[in-house]
Write a structure and sequence with these properties.
Elements lengths: L14 H9 L9 E6 L1 E3 L3 E12 L4 E3 L12 E11 L5 E3 L7 E3 L16 E3 L4 E10 L9 H4 L6 E6 L2 E2 L1 E4 L2 E3 L5 E2 L3 E6 L3
Parallel strand pairs: 1-15
Antiparallel strand pairs: 2-3, 3-5, 4-7, 5-9, 6-8, 10-15, 11-14, 12-13
Length: about 200
């Protein structure tokens, strides 16, 4: 039997989180409980840390698209966020899967790749940790006006992660058997404020 200690809601959220949740209702997913932290957040199952971020253009990112996907234009801008996820609970977890539309690698950096988007994402057994980049497209209108110099003046205030399943016996390719070992539906949104 595994005993987990976690907060579904904190009695006192960090001040940035309280003001964020009250001023922008779109930040928090409906039906999810918020767990907030500065630079990292944990609900007792997963601990997620954001180390740094930067902006870069597509021409500097080695994308790995499937043959039916169209690559971005060379000057298009992306936000890259360096993240660590540690499974500190006693159950199994997967992250990724359909969250990202492409894989990419980055030469001369650590970590040097994004989280994989194939085979149901990245499996994290209890006690494991992984480091990766997540990337977001920065939209400029029109696309031809993409401007890395302008984007570098942007500031990322927070990153969120929705945890909607945890536990069970991992079967592979993102599938779990919840008969022998119960699966949980935590419905927790980890909100990580950045001071970088």
């Amino acid at each position: 039997m595994v005993s987990l200690a976690y907060f579904l809601s904190l009695p006192k959220l960090p001040s940035f989180c309280s003001s964020l949740l009250s001023s922008d209702p779109q930040v928090s997913e409906a039906g999810y409980s918020a767990v907030c932290g500065i630079s990292q957040a944990s609900d007792g199952r997963l601990s997620i840390a954001v180390h740094n971020y930067h902006f870069d253009q597509a021409k500097n990112i080695q994308f790995h698209f499937s043959s039916n996907q169209q690559p971005p234009l060379p000057d298009e801008v992306f936000l890259l966020v360096n993240v660590s996820v540690t499974n500190i609970g006693g159950g199994n977890a997967s992250i990724g899967g359909t969250m990202f539309i492409a894989n990419a690698s980055f030469t001369a950096t650590y970590p040097n790749q994004t989280i994989p988007d194939i085979n149901g994402g990245l499996y994290l057994p209890p006690g494991s940790k992984t480091d990766f980049w997540i990337f977001f497209y920065v939209r400029f209108q029109p696309v031809a006006s993409s401007d890395l110099a302008a984007a570098s003046g942007f500031k990322v205030e927070f990153v969120t992660f929705n945890e909607n399943s945890y536990g069970g016996n991992y079967l592979g390719q993102g599938a779990y058997d919840c008969k022998e070992t119960a699966c949980q539906r935590p419905d927790v949104e980890l909100i990580i404020g950045l001071l970088i």
